[in-house]
Amino acid sequence: MPKFAANLTLLFTEVPFLDRFAAARAAGFDAVECQFPYEYNPAEIRRRLDDNGLRMVLHNLHAGDWQAGERGLACDPRLHRQFRDSVKQALDYATLLDVPQLHCLAGVVPPGMDLRRVRESYLYNLEYAANMCRPRGIRLLIEPINTIDIPGYFLSRTEQALDIIAACDSDNVFLQSDIYHMHSMGEDVTALLRRALPHIRHVQLADAPGRNEPGTGEIDYPHVFALLEELGYDGWIGCEYRPLAGTVAGLQWRDGPAIGGVPPANRLNPAA
């Protein structure tokens, strides 16, 4: 059976963030993840985890100034100092919260900047962060994000991510595969999960289009879950979607013989 983690940034938004831990436990989750925990005292998050018998399995490094359009710091060579500060902050949180892996957002390509320079900055920062994470037993993850939701995002395709991992001078950089982003970019999800599995340490889901719960769009999630089981994936699957009609009501997809009895939809690769 898949192991699902509730993404507390997008799920249970009916209640304040710190109350979402109890809501996730009440809904049957054993683990949670979030995008950015930095507005909250890590000791208070630790208490909420312990009080509810939950594990936090993932959070992101800081993305920079979101309101100003920043979506990560790693690919911008002008932001190395800020990036290193974000690594320290993320490690402080992850260490206190026993988080085993951190996602490093690549960021948006600065206008007019040479892509070779952007790639060099990304590799340099990934190697630094991965080496800082290793002594604490924390894995560093990278995630391709579709360029519809974030135009100009540097890392947008799985093959590109595999190339970055191969180019890194570190054995502590791994892949976070988000089925929603893969499908949104027209990728062959089945083929790429098979190819990338040795590098995958975390999976996330949402249906497409809309980024809502499984069963609301085109992606055949019973097939995805069966494939991950066939491939021997035993990591967490983060539920990073926006519920259409309330979080608890939208969790019906988890129940039933096909992990929610989600009917097969169109196909995983719309271009196939």
Topology:
Blueprint lengths: L2 E5 L12 H7 L4 E3 L8 H10 L3 E6 L19 H18 L3 E3 L11 H19 L5 E4 L15 H10 L5 E6 H6 L4 H8 L3 E6 L15 H11 L4 E4 L33
Parallel strand pairs: 1-2, 1-8, 2-3, 3-4, 4-5, 5-6, 6-7, 7-8
Largest sheet: 8 strands, parallel, barrel
> How many domains make up the coordinates?
1
Instruction: Please tell me the overall pLDDT.
Output: 93
* The level-1 CATH class: Alpha Beta
Low-confidence stretches: 260-272
The overall strand count is: 8
> What characteristic shape results from the CA principal axes?
globular
In CATH, what is the homologous superfamily?
Divalent-metal-dependent TIM barrel enzymes
Please compute the radius of gyration using only Cα atoms. 18 Å
Number of helices: 8
Task: Walk across the major sheet and give the strand order.
Answer: 1-2-3-4-5-6-7-8
What class, by secondary structure content?
alpha/beta
Oligomer: single chain
**What separation lies between the terminal Cα atoms?**
28 Å
What's the CATH topology label?
TIM Barrel
H/E series, N to C?
A: EHEHEHEHEHEHHEHE
Family: Belongs to the hyi family.
Keywords: Isomerase
GO molecular function: hydroxypyruvate isomerase activity
Active site: 143 (proton donor/acceptor), 240 (proton donor/acceptor)
